[in-house]
Structures are given as structure tokens and as C-alpha cells.
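Attaching the record inline, Q. Sequence:
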Amino acid sequence: MNVARLLLRTASLFPERTAIMLGDRKLIDYRELGRRAASIGMSLTSDLQLELGDRIALFMSNDVAYLEILYGIWWAGLVAVPINAKLHSKEVAYILENAGAACLFCSDDLATDIGPIADSLPALRRVFTVGSDDYVHLQRATPAPMTPRAPDDIAWLFYTSGTTGFPKGVMQTHRNLLTMISCYFTDVDDVRPGDAMVYSAPLSHGAGMYHFPYLLRGALHVIPESWGFEPGELCRLSKNIGQLSLFAAPTMVRRLVDHIDKTAADPTGFKTIIYGGGPMYTEDIRKALSVMGNRFVQIYGQGECPMTITALAREHLADTEHPRWLERIASVGIAQSMVEVITTDDQGLALPPGEIGEIWVRGDAVMAGYWNNPEASAAALQGGWLRTGDLGRFDADGFLTLHDRSKDLIISGGANIYPREVEEVLLRHPCVNEVSVIGQPDAEWGEVVVAFVVAKDVTVAELDALCLAHIARFKRPKHYHFIDALPKNNYGKVLKTALREELARYNPHHDPEIPEKS
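Structure, as predicted:
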């Protein structure tokens, strides 16, 4: 089933309900949202002669037009390729080329970055800037009937950072997304008329995936006027709109809680805050519950199993009388209802509770594979199971606690950063002989990027400039440590554990309560 049918259903049942708001201003109802999506779909298929399964990219900030474009793409039977608006132009170009994108939508604030990219990609037929005359023409075309799609057809091509230094395109099917929606209602939260989801995190990632339950129930979609995350603005919106929910990285939750705590703002306008994308430390969630009350749910997922591996429900977070409450709130909860989750040993055999192993997941939420990457697909998908690469352990009640992230993944402010992609850029400098990148625990960002560099006659400014020329600003190292040699084992493998120990010596005031990676 085509996920665009969700919009068709809601536009038919609740045509006059407000769909899109900018701040607390009502802009578009569901009748108009459905009409615009059908018009955009018509233009893509008739004017551009696109074919089923062609990839259409969105390089956009959070914009009021985001959802109409997404549903226009699906309406026409095409594949959406949302791209993080914070990526460097070279990273954007790689994704567009790898996906074979036939068309690109960009928001006005990013339009100047797109020209040189578009000129270098002959397969890219058209670029539409939201608000331009060409885009308005798309919106006003005669609406087209929806194009049917099979459950296992690709709907969303999600590019995630890759351990090889290049992002991989996760093929998420219509079935994957419909399963995620079912799990949301069962395991995360219910949605009722008048509820509002505010998009203060990028619509290109997890926050955007959580639009589905709200659209299905004819609820509100709110784009902040700041286009991003501002705690004061969120508090004002919660007061003016009410029943406000959001998806947030733990660092965002911490900022919101601190703001409310310091300003004595009223939190009652917030309904649900779903947090994920990085570790939430025990003291942080305890403070959040104390300041804002029982409004939190945690999810654990990956792009390869979108938002749908485990969930820690609000009733578990609020159950302070449970004898293992502190252990539970440090966990990522229990397996969501439509997936199986196990931990395994090195041979892929399931482990009993209490033992740490690799987390595997199976179910209709698991991706179809990686786009044009059969080797990576075969490594990640084995016997119907997704190997997450994360380590964890279950307790006797089925609560899963994470013990490490995928290999050496760094999560800074909820954004995934793989060390390899940073290392490869730093090694471009002719004076850099070796480099190893790790994450340093940070109270504000969760982690920050730190580089250990073996080099002669090179400055921090030069390395910073190199990074800024090739990767997104948020990925560049926050600290550089110049050393004579990297510690290695007998096989020549860099010992990142030794580097973390060295980092602790560089940072004598490091908080021992924050766990280091092993």
C-alpha cells in the first residue's frame, strides 16, 4: 500500500482540520494539503516524465512545504530522498549522485548552495526552489490520481553515515513505514484530535518520520518560526497551542528542561517528548521527570529499522516505586510490538538475560537493504535478522540496556558521526601521517569529536580549514592532540581504548559518572 493513501484518507475524512501551522498561525488544512500533494505528483509524472521508483531529493530546512512535497513524491509512485540540511555541499553531491536523483527540491535558504552541485550532475533533470514561480506551478497543476505501490516498494531512501567514510542509502519500504506507524500507536503514544507535533529537529530524519501518526489522525503539524530548536519558543507554542509533542535528542531535552527549570515556565502545554538518537544519562532523565512531569518516552532505533527497535514507556519512567527503577530508566526499554529483538554471541547464537552481545532485530520494520550496495546489505542482513552493530544486554524482564554504539560511532547533539569519514579528510593533508578520531563525553552535546594526529609542521587552523572544505561543520574535531605515534596492537590495529585512556589524562576534570566507550 502506498503511504500517500494515509493523506488521501485524512483529507477525505477531516478536510477542514488544520494540517500545517507556522508557529501558532494556521496555514493549510488537510483538503489543501491533499490537493497540493496530488498536484505536485501530477507535475512530476507528466511534466518531467518521471517513472515509477525514480528518486526525488529534498535538501531543505524545516519548511511548511516539506510534507506536501513528500506526499507529492509518494503520490506519483516515486522515492523520497531527504537530505540533512546541515551537510556540506560535497556530501550533498555524493548523495544525489549515489541515489541517481532525477529531481531536487530545496528551500530558499539553501538555494545558493545548489547551483554548482546541480551543474555537476547530468542525471539531475530539475531543481525546484520552494516559493519560486516554477514551484508554484507544480502546486497549481491539475491533481492526478494516486499511483499504486506494493508494500515492498521503496518509499524513503535514508542516507546514514557510513563506516567506510561514505553514507549508505537505507532502503525503507512502504511496509517498513506502515509498521513503524503501528508501533508508534502501540508502544510510544496515542494521537488525538487537537494534538500537535512540532518539528524542532530536522524533518529529514527521525522527527520527520514521526509525522505519520499525526497525519493519519488528522492532527496538527507545527513548523517553528525559528525553523529549529529554541526552548523559549517551544514553551510559548505549548502555551498557545497546547497538547504539543516533539521528538528530540537528549541534548535538546536537557536544554528544554534547564530553560523551564530556570524560568519557571509552565510545562503543562507539553503532551509527549520522545527522546532518542543518543544516550540519556540517568541524572538527566531524573531531572526532566522532576521538572516537567510524566511526559517522556524513549525510543531506540536505527535508520535500518526506523524508530522501531525498543521503547521505554512513560509508565516505566514514572514508576519510581519499582525496585529496579534506576536500572530501567537507564535502559532503552523493551522490544517494540512488531519486532523481535535478541542479543547474540560471536556465532550469532542468542544470549540469555544478563549477558552482553550484539543486538539483532527482525520484523517488518527492517530495511530492504542498502541502495546499490549488496556487500553492505549482506553483512547487515543475515537470515532475516538485522545486525545492528550495537552491544547491549537484556534483564530478566526484557529491558534492554545499551553498552556501546556501532563500533566507534560518535553521537554529538543527536547527530551520528563516524570517525572514519573525519579521519579520511584529515589524512588529505600532506603533513598528516596518521590520525585516529574518537568521541569525548560532553555534558552539553553528549559527545564531541576529538582527533589524535601524528604530523609535522601542521596547525589546527589548517586542519580545521580542511574539514570545513569537505564535511559538515558539526563533524569537525573540537579538539586536536598531536602525538608521536598511535598506539597499536600486534596486528597494527589502532587501540582506541588506549586513546580514550590518554584522553582522560588530557582531561583530569572529566566526570567519572559518564561512561567511556570500551
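The two ends are 43 Å apart (CA to CA). The CA atoms of residues 18 and 29 lie 4 Å apart.

More tomorrow.
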